[in-house]
């Protein structure tokens, strides 16, 4: 474990609040998943935040974890070192974080290297691993090992596509609405109707541009 001096005053108070966010039950769940997912002879760590940190801090287990989420031959980290050198360990943590983000974990769910290596925020480490599990379950590509209920599936974005004909029909409706008011001055139109008409026109233009760009 990295050596850190004691915290004093406000910094100690902040650190205590961070440590209170750590979930011991979640730790057990994550350890079980990682061991099952890696399918290797990985030693089960003793319970506790400090042991969980020590288990992960050299980056070896994390790199094996992200590699296990890819088909054989497509692993993002081909060379994993069990070096005791600090800079090598931090380098491997960084490799894992980069690979996790490429895999689909949001930047906002990625912990900082010092959060793990110095034990500054192990709750953030748990959050990243939970997000990684959620992405793995959602992908459903056959690489995830474990119960699907262990992680939440991410919501899939529901995109609507519009054909050229649908866009033209929408523009015709807008044209008829505008034509029915021909002869009426802009001042005579209610602000509400004018605003809605502008909104419909803008929406139709946006949909048409979106369809053209998606080709």
UniProtKB/TrEMBL annotation:
<comment type="similarity">
    <text>Belongs to the calponin family.</text>
</comment>
<dbReference type="GO" id="GO:0015629">
    <property type="term" value="C:actin cytoskeleton"/>
</dbReference>
<feature type="domain" description="Calponin-homology (CH)">
    <location>
        <begin position="24"/>
        <end position="136"/>
    </location>
</feature>
<dbReference type="InterPro" id="IPR000557">
    <property type="entry name" value="Calponin_repeat"/>
</dbReference>
<dbReference type="InterPro" id="IPR050606">
    <property type="entry name" value="Calponin-like"/>
</dbReference>
<dbReference type="GO" id="GO:0007015">
    <property type="term" value="P:actin filament organization"/>
</dbReference>
<dbReference type="Pfam" id="PF00307">
    <property type="entry name" value="CH"/>
</dbReference>
<dbReference type="InterPro" id="IPR001715">
    <property type="entry name" value="CH_dom"/>
</dbReference>
<dbReference type="Pfam" id="PF00402">
    <property type="entry name" value="Calponin"/>
</dbReference>
<dbReference type="InterPro" id="IPR003096">
    <property type="entry name" value="SM22_calponin"/>
</dbReference>
<dbReference type="InterPro" id="IPR036872">
    <property type="entry name" value="CH_dom_sf"/>
</dbReference>
<dbReference type="GO" id="GO:0051015">
    <property type="term" value="F:actin filament binding"/>
</dbReference>
<protein>
    <recommendedName>
        <fullName>Transgelin-3</fullName>
    </recommendedName>
</protein>
<keyword id="KW-0597">Phosphoprotein</keyword>
């Amino acid at each position: 474990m990295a050596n850190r001096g004691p915290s004093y005053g406000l910094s100690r108070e902040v650190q205590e609040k961070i440590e209170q966010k750590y979930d011991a039950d979640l730790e057990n769940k994550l350890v079980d998943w990682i061991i099952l997912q890696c399918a290797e002879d990985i030693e089960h760590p003793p319970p506790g935040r400090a042991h969980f940190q020590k288990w992960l801090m050299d980056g070896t287990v994390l790199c094996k974890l992200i590699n296990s989420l890819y088909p054989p031959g497509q692993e993002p980290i081909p060379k994993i070192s069990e070096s005791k050198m600090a800079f090598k360990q931090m380098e491997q943590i960084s490799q894992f974080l980069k690979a996790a983000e490429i895999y689909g974990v949001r930047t906002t769910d990625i912990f900082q290297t010092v959060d793990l290596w110095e034990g500054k925020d192990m709750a953030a480490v748990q959050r990243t691993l939970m997000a990684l599990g959620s992405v793995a379950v959602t992908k459903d590509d056959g690489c995830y090992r474990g119960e699907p209920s262990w992680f939440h599936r991410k919501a899939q974005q529901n995109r609507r596509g519009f054909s050229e004909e649908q866009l033209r029909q929408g523009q015709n409706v807008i044209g008829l609405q505008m034509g029915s008011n021909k002869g009426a001055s802009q001042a005579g139109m209610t602000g509400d109707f004018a605003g809605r008409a502008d909104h419909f026109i803008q929406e139709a233009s946006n949909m048409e541009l979106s369809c053209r760009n998606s080709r």
